[in-house]
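User: I'm new to structure prediction. If I give you an amino acid sequence, what do you actually give back? Let's try with this one:
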Amino acid sequence: MARYACGQARGKDWRNATDACLATIEVPGEGAALGFLYVTDSLAADLGEVVRRCQEVTGVEHWVGTVGMGVCATAQEYYDEPAVTVMVGAFPAGSFRVFPTVQDGFTGFDGAHADWLAAHHPQIALVHGDPRNAALPTLIEGLADRVETGFLVGGLTSSRGAYPQVADGITEGGLSGVLFGRDVLVRTRLTQGCSPIGPYREVTEADRNIVVELDGRPALDVLREDIGEILSRDLSRIGGYVFAALPVEGSDTGDYLVRNLVGIDARQGMIAIGDRVRPGGRLMFCRRDGMSAREDLVRTLERLRQTIPGAPRGGIYVSCLGRGASLLGPASAELRLVAEVLGDFPLVGFYANGEISHRRLYGYTGVITLFF
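Assistant: Good question. You get back a string of structure tokens that encode the predicted 3D arrangement of the chain. For your 372 residues, that looks like this:
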């Protein structure tokens, strides 16, 4: 059976934090080993050294991961300090395939991985994306098309400096990660961080990301109606609290994509959001709310726990920068909730600049992926 081990540590510099982290790990002795590595962005410039140290100490050749303005491990979150989190797992031989950055197309990817894809029928991929690449939504769709289930999990690097990713070595600029074949048993779920304020409205007039009318009325009038009189008095204060949500068509769970409100034209009654909208589509307004986010996280974890085949051997948790301590509370409240519901098992992850689930880019969500 596959075994997993994880470590976590803070330190005064990359070497101190990395060595303290690795000192707690017993590398699995059988199977093909893969390492998962997440470091806080204060160590972004040193990520290459961290990877080399991990390879040297553990003897594990293959690594994936990235940088986050926060990182996490079992029941613990780290922000604004040098910190390293590592998980190593043993997988069946040939059951995973690490791939470096795909930046603008899949010609090179297909040439390098076609034989493995045909032989191992990947069921899911863990991916890390560079938020500076405007083509990322297209790249996510393209990679999902190369996975039999169409399922990706992961997130976008978050940093106040460099944006490196790990895919055996250091890479950046696009989408990188690891594909898992059908021999790897995985379960994953997504939890929302924003709750609906009003009902879905029909987009009756729009131009690119500008919503002109909802339900045949000026979009701003509908926004004011849904958020209520008190918030409507000063619309400059709703940023970071009120958002637009677009439904995921065909979802059997009522899933939706949260997008920022990026502009309001009070004179013409229009609003702009952080995504393209089309007439005939639907849109609702939602709010960022700690209590509802906590309830949804617990509900999601409980449903996941009821469907899994046993105790997880390891896991990856990717959460939004807008969650964590700022939404769910201090003292590692979000990761402690995960441990309370699912138990104590090896887990690592990071706080992302956007989360990836299935074939879509989300915001204000948490994506948990468990290995069995």
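You can read the tokens as a compact description of the fold. Here is one thing that stands out. Residues 137 and 361 are 7 Å apart (CA to CA).
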